[in-house]
Design goal:
The complex is a heterodimer of chains A (253) and B (285).
Chain A (H helix, E strand, L loop, with lengths): L1 E9 L1 E2 L2 E2 L4 E6 L3 E5 L6 H9 L6 E6 L5 E4 L13 H6 L13 H4 L1 H10 L15 H13 L5 E5 L7 H18 L2 E6 L4 H5 L2 E6 L4 E6 H6 L1 H12 L6 H6 L6
Parallel strand pairs in A: 5-9, 5-10, 7-8, 8-9
Antiparallel strand pairs in A: 1-4, 1-6, 2-3, 10-11
Chain B lengths: L6 H6 L1 H27 L3 H24 L9 H19 L4 H23 L6 H9 L7 H30 L1 H6 L4 H23 L1 H7 L2 H9 L3 H26 L3 H25 L1
Classes of the chains: A alpha/beta (253), B mainly alpha (285).
């Protein structure tokens, strides 16, 4: 089932496109890697797909009633706002005008517990969010996004400033959620190592060279344009592994 | 410091002080509640600028009545304050979409225009200068029963709206992108939040003065966000602390013969400062 489709989508600012037209279809249970170097246009593309920026041209079509979860960069979450983990996750319950319904937090208790369990953050629920480690914060932000039971989750640099062990734990968690729940993922990251292991599809963007290439992860990893941009880093990447091949089969087929 | 009352005398004369003391408490509670958003959204200077603009609006209403022969709504100080406040807030909200530096500059210009405008107009309405002083720094004398009703009605309406929609206001304040992605009416919520702030500031500036209005919209919230474990409790605590500062400041002013606005502000500073060691002690537990 296709959740989101971009038709000849051009992204940019102030009426000026920064990338060539992009076509992609995000199906349930697929994991899309949005890769590119710093300043390549990843964030602009992601924000346009999310509806936070208007397209310069083209169209983003969503499945009717699609719920999208968004996990922003941790640095954008203000640590001075008081809140325990439970409060942060509870904040993700509302959608549309539901914030006017006082019963939503009570009805959402089960969903909050499920989201915290799914992200291994249940034991943290009483702790102040600001005092968590970066890896714990990322898990809690994923729980906040999960609590509204999205069909598509979009993550912006989920592993920036994480050590390699925490980084791997986050990608493993996301992959488990994808397989268990049939969740579709779009992950914007400048990290490449997760692409062969966890991504089913990828979009390579490069604003400087006017490039926006979408395809399966294997196609993008093999593309000359990818190797031209990443050089030795691309060569060092393993081919899509058996584990990744398994992971590419979503739970719901 | 002159001779003031004793606590016993204050409560013996309660009928005399009731309106002003209650108005201070209600205004403190309302602005304390809204102040949580002011402080956490780093809009402290917005509150200062808007209360100055409101003060200038009141001065303009006096000027219009005295020198332009205006009557009715055109000479109403509350409407004058509301008009300039709404203009200031609209400019600030639009300016907020630019860079933080541009927004800061705009706030500075509005504050300076408000302050200089009030002073300039004040020289043209010498016979009402006492009213302007009362407006800027707060006084007990100016509060009449209609003011209590006005502040209480404003607080009841805005308080009820914030109680009902606080999750929406929190979402657009602390996770604006997430709120938009989840389909919350982010722009309407943001405008409503600013509008309630503008109305509260304009009414309170008109009734209790610009100085305590600014103080109540910052100081109780500073203490509350340090002490409360989450935003809903910070909203409740700031409301309570604001009411205490409003009433307690009035009481202190009566006991020590101080200007009311100054006493309320100094009490607010003491509350905000005392939150630091209390928070530290709570953290160590």
């Amino acid at each position: 089932m296709t959740l989101l489709r971009a038709h000849s989508l051009r992204v940019g600012y102030a009426g000026r496109a920064i990338l060539p037209p992009l076509d992609l279809a995000v199906d349930a249970g697929r994991s899309w890697a949005l890769v590119g170097r710093n300043g390549s246009g990843k964030t602009t593309a992601m924000r346009t797909v999310l509806g936070l920026l208007p397209p310069i041209a083209g169209l983003v079509e969503r499945a009717p009633g699609l719920r999208v979860g968004y996990v922003p960069q941790r640095a954008t979450v203000d640590a001075s706002v008081p809140g325990r983990v439970l409060d942060v996750v509870r904040a993700g319950l509302d959608h549309g005008w539901s914030f006017l319904d006082p019963r939503v937090p009570l009805r959402g208790r089960r969903a909050i517990r499920d989201a915290l369990e799914a992200t291994d953050a249940l034991d943290l629920r009483r702790q102040p969010f600001a005092r968590l480690s970066e890896g714990q914060k990322q898990r809690v932000l994923i729980a906040r996004s999960l609590v509204a039971q999205p069909a598509l989750m979009v993550l912006d640099e989920p592993t920036s400033a994480l050590d390699p062990v925490s980084e791997d734990a986050i990608f493993t968690l996301l992959d488990r959620l994808r397989r268990e729940r049939g969740l579709a993922l779009i992950i914007a990251s400048h990290q490449l190592s997760y692409v062969p292991r966890f991504a089913t599809h990828a979009v390579l963007v490069d604003r400087e060279h006017d490039l926006a290439l979408a395809g399966t992860a294997a196609e993008i990893l093999a593309a000359p344009a990818f190797h031209a941009r990443y050089g030795a880093a691309a060569a060092a990447l393993a081919a899509p592994t058996a584990q990744a091949a398994d992971a590419r089969e979503p739970a719901d087929g | 410091m002159g001779e003031g009352l004793t606590v016993e005398q204050f409560f013996e004369l309660w009928d005399l002080f009731r309106d002003a003391a209650l108005t201070g408490a209600i205004a403190g509670a309302l602005l304390g509640l809204l102040g949580v958003y002011v402080v956490l959204r780093r809009m402290v200077f917005l509150s200062a600028a808007v209360s100055q603009a409101a003060g200038c609006g009141v001065a303009l209403a006096f000027y219009a009545r005295l020198h332009l022969g205006a009557t009715g709504l055109l000479a109403d100080p509350t409407l004058g304050a509301a008009a300039l406040t709404l203009i200031a807030v609209a400019l600030i909200v639009r300016g907020g979409r630019q860079t933080p530096a541009a927004r800061d500059g705009l706030l500075g210009v509005i504050w300076l225009l408000g302050a200089a405008g009030t002073l300039a107009i004040g020289t043209r309405i010498v016979q009402d200068l006492a009213d302007i002083d009362a407006l800027l720094f707060g006084t007990a004398v100016a509060v009449v029963p209609e003011d209590v009703t006005l502040v209480a009605a404003t607080a009841a309406i805005i308080g009820a709206l914030h109680l009902w929609a606080h999750r929406g206001f929190a979402a657009v304040s602390f996770d604006p992108d997430g709120a938009r992605v989840r389909g919350l009416p982010a722009r309407a919520l943001d405008w409503t939040l600013f509008a309630t702030l503008a109305i509260a500031v304009s009414v309170c500036t008109r009734v209790i003065g610009a100085l305590p209005t600014f103080a109540f919209s910052v100081l109780p919230a500073l203490a509350a966000v340090r002490l409360a474990p989450n935003v809903p409790r910070a909203l409740i605590l700031a409301t309570i602390l604001g009411a205490l500062c409003g009433f307690g400041g009035y009481l202190l002013a009566s006991l020590y013969d101080l200007p009311v606005g100054a006493a309320q502000t100094l009490l607010g500073v003491a509350v905000a400062a005392s939150a630091v060691p209390i928070a530290w002690l709570l953290d160590r537990r």
